[in-house]
Specification:
Helix content: 25-40%
CATH topology: Alpha-D-Glucose-1,6-Bisphosphate, Chain A, domain 4
Number of helices: 4
Pfam family, one: AHSA1
Protein name: Activator of Hsp90 ATPase homologue 1/2-like C-terminal domain-containing protein
CATH class: Alpha Beta
Order of helices and strands: EHHEEEEEEHH
CATH architecture: 2-Layer Sandwich
Number of strands: 7
Distance between the termini: 12 Å
Family: Belongs to the AHA1 family.
Shape: globular
InterPro entries: ASHA1/2-like_C (IPR013538), START-like_dom_sf (IPR023393)
Organism: Luteipulveratus mongoliensis
Strand order of the largest sheet: 1-7-6-5-4-3-2
Structural class: alpha+beta
Length: 146
Amino acid sequence: MEVRFEQHYDSGAADLWDAVTDPERLARWFAPVEGRFGVGEAFTICFDDGDVPECRVIECVAPQRFSFEWPHASGATVVTAEVRPDGDGSVLVLTHARLGRSQAAGYAAGWDAYLRLLTDHLAGREPQNWWEHFGAAQKAYAERLG
């Protein structure tokens, strides 16, 4: 199963690319990351709930596409971020593939909440409460995805 988000931002493509690939900026809206982002290299996502997956970069075509494997007990999933210019702004297409049916609603809700934080980050606003949005979104995605 795959979850997919496509969102327009008022920010330019270079700024959006930087926001989704620069460790310092990722820490502001997603989570701290440690490691390297070259193809075949590994990086760790340090979530505040103690989950610390070690991911492996499978593709990086700067400044347009970045993909990585995210390990799980049931096998690796794949996250892809694509950035493209769109008028005065840019578009981010984020997909998380190879999800099991039982995982899809939770990951969809998580990405939904994180992308709201990305919107706030790019607009220079204080971030929303991730947990609050995640809870409401998870229920909605669970109903929609069955």
